[in-house]
Specification:
Shape: globular
Structural class: alpha+beta
Order of helices and strands: HHHEE
Helix content: 40-55%
Distance between the termini: 39 Å
Largest sheet: 2 strands, antiparallel
Strand order of the largest sheet: 1-2
Number of helices: 3
Radius of gyration: 14 Å
Oligomer: single chain
Number of strands: 2
């Protein structure tokens, strides 16, 4: 069930919105998604922390709402706020 959920997440959140032309192109785009998924995307099972934050037990800092910018991930498909 874990692998099925991972495949579904990758398909729904990324591959359904992205074209790829060769195996290398797909591999590069999946590497982008892996970085986004593990380092930038918050997960509800981790109370909004990313897997890297959860693994490192890093406390999540609250950012002031008036001081942020958008950070692009996965070739511009996803954008998340980031403290400026």
């Amino acid at each position: 069930p874990f692998v099925e959920r991972l495949i579904g997440t990758i398909r729904r959140e990324y591959l359904d919105h992205m074209l790829f032309w060769t195996a290398n192109d797909l591999q590069n785009k999946l590497a982008d998604f892996i970085k986004y998924y593990n380092a930038a995307r918050g997960h509800s099972a981790h109370i909004g922390k990313t897997p890297l934050q959860q693994a490192d037990c890093v406390a999540k800092n609250v950012m002031p709402i008036d001081n942020y910018r958008w950070e692009s991930h996965c070739r511009g498909l996803m954008q998340l706020p980031k403290a400026a």
